[in-house]
Please model this.
Amino acid sequence: MHFRSALFAAALAVSPAGLLQAGQGVTDTTVTFAQVAAMDGPASALGLGMKTGIEVAFAEANAAGGVHGRQVALDAFDDGYEPDRSAAHLRDIVQADAHLGVIGPVGTPTSAASQPVATEAGLPFIGPFTGAGFLRDASLGNIYNIRATYAAETEAWIAHLVDGLGLSQIAILYQDDGFGRVGLDGATAALEKRGLELVSQGTYTRNTVAVKSALLEIRKAEPEAVVIVGAYKPVAEFIKLSRKLKFDPLFVNISFVGSDALAGELAEDGEGVIISQVVPFPWDDSLPMVARYQAALAAHSDAAPGFVTLEGYMVGRVALAALEAAGKDLTRDGYLKALAGLRDVDLDGVVLHFGPGDNQGMDDVFLTRITADGRFEPITMGQGS
Model:
């Protein structure tokens, strides 16, 4: 059912008094957040993975009694990774006033369309799954990021390829929209710092897998590495087709690609593919935060550990920390003040740092590689493929 129809149908089933009581997503016993993200289509693994991670964090808190006696819930709405749909959902959410805030939105073009709606309405916008720079403007007052920027990821790529491996012939494939162009700008700037430039560029259209023309153009330049700014289905198509054509540079991907989904799509063609990450290694249970995440995931979901669900879990934990700080007399204004008051948020040894003028909790970027068996291994700068 379309979100607007579903929401109004639900409203008709509730008494007027109940509607008033549930204003801003808060009742005496519950608090509800909204997620607007791709739940279908070629980016759906990202939205669904974030949803799972957030729900696991909420379920863990609920099993321990909730926050100030309230159970925490999530309503997810599918935007198909399309900006117009994302903005329409946000306008409906604002009008219905049945959610405390928005959590775990996915994508740069979708966030560019939906974030201004949330900001104008004073609706918290927590943990977007994108490293776009415009979301780091803390003066907007309602946006709180977990992950490092795409600029940090692209710098890590080029440091690894150029400074570490000594490569100089680097090309790029990017999604032809705001997301892709942010990655293009980051890679270009990182290369310029080192007196280099891209040897070739190729693009594809969002929500398609039409990458063959870009591949043929890029291949002409005979690059040593291709850095990629895209989602998992078109990226997998590009890499698989490259392998068939015996075009075998080093492939390096941005975290948004969806590591687990990409590895699944690539199967045997994935060996050696590098992906930058913005959360710790989800299988490193020597980290107390990861061990807790793994336990919560096992208790409340049938999903396997992975980078996207771990990011969702961390986003959920930050939202819960602000709920705890907001106190029992919960309002949206009070919640925004609690978010603004976050400083060092300790997620079992992984500390996120917020402060005046800083609405991004983590700056770390980690490099990983897909192994022959489709798993992941951490790599260090300069470690070859």
The first helix runs from residue 3 to 12. The domain at 150-277+366-379 is CATH 3.40.50.2300 (Rossmann fold). Confidence is low (pLDDT under 50) at residues 1-21. DSSP finds 13 helices and 14 strands in the chain.
